[in-house]
Amino acid sequence: MSFLRHPTIRKWIAHAGEFASFLVFSGFSVLRGDLIKTDWTHAFEKNYQPKYLLGWALAGLSLGLCRVLAGRFAKAEARGVLSAPDFIEKYRKMLSAAIESLSVPAGADRGSLEAFENSLLEAIADTVSYYRKATSLVNATVTANLMAPVTPADEHKQSLWLEEGGFQYLHRVLIITKTSRQELDIPADLALPVYRLDSPMKGRNIFGAPEAFVTGENNVIDFTLWPFGYWGRCSWSVRKRAYSYFWRHQKTLRSFASLPLKYKGNVVAVVNIHYKWIRILGKQPEPLIDFLVPFLLILGYIYVAKEATP
Amino acid sequence: MSQSNMSVCAGQAVARPVGDYSANLQAFQASVREFEAFVESKNLRPITPAFRALVGSLFSIIGLGLGYVVLELALRLTR
After folding, report:
1. What interface predicted TM-score (ipTM) does this complex get?
2. What are the residue boundaries of the structural domains of chain A, listed by start?
3. Do B69 and A133 make contact, defined as CB atoms within 8 angstroms?
4. What is the distance in angstroms between the Cα of B4 and the nearest Cα belonging to chain A?
5. Shortest CA distance to A296 belongs to which of A263, A261, A265?
6. pLDDT tens-digit profile of A13-67?
7. Nearest CA to CA, how far is B3 from chain A (Å)?
8. Is B50 on the interface with A (CB under 8 A)?
9. How far is CA A159 from the centre of its chain?
10. Is A267 on the interface with B (CB under 8 A)?
11. Which CATH superfamily is domain A84-307 in?
12. What is the pLDDT of residues A59-87, one digit of tens each?
């Protein structure tokens, strides 16, 4: 039974316990609510044993306990996966090679900078892929896309994500300019609107890349079919269109993370990492993001250098 | 690292030729490919037959429970 000491296995057992407790707790409440109520009425009477009430309360306690334990085991798992010696060795090698390549970006031509960007996107996708391969039960594909801001043009008036009458308030449109692997499922004409911050639409930026671009904060969507906590002030029509888009792409896009690329404190572009399963960065994303930050900083620097190169 | 070694390292960094960008880039691309091969090849998941059986039986029990709840609810609602 030594495998039970592994944090991944403990995490999954805690998840199963959480699910089972939820089922017992909610199922018992719905099906035997009358017995619980009777037990509660007579709970303090002498010689009365409120067994249904106790069982129900225990299931509730077990639900909370399993939830906390699953979080703790997920943290332990993240620490273990991201400190594995062979991973650290290869990650350091990759990072030091990327930093050495930064020594003379001014002397590089645009083609070399493009190639550098491609490799950085692959490095980001591979790091996430390594982590999720070690922590998820499903082995799904990870794709990193570079989303660059462009000036709005007439072709963007048809964007699926555009608010009614929002075109005149557009600041930029984010489009995919690069991807770490050719994914036919991600449409090349995906254009996400970013509204001007001095316009009435300033609060209507949709979650994901536009929000990351405006706020400069990481935006992680754990499950695209449950985006209800992320809508913000988007209109009902955009929500409907976005939800139907995610429903259509549910087999290829179950979660994603939008990470801003910064240069001298300003957001210059966004890296969108797509995953074919839920929870792209796992239950505890922070340790993994720490490993992605160096590549994101280098990519921001290279992106600006490339844009300045004719 | 001794003082002399540090100065040698620093000297090497300063003396790096300006035109070797493509060599550096190729080294980085090679390291990314190596990392990708490592991710592809390594069996990272601790899933053993015993674990598979354990998770399978746990979820079977949960599934049976869920089935019971749904069936019972359906019967009550149609009664």
Report:
1. 0.77
2. 2-78, 84-307
3. no
4. 22
5. A261
6. 888 888 888 888 888 888 888 888 888 888 888 888 888 889 899 999 999 999 9
7. 22
8. yes
9. 23
10. no
11. GAF domain (3.30.450.40)
12. 999 999 999 999 898 888 888 888 889 89
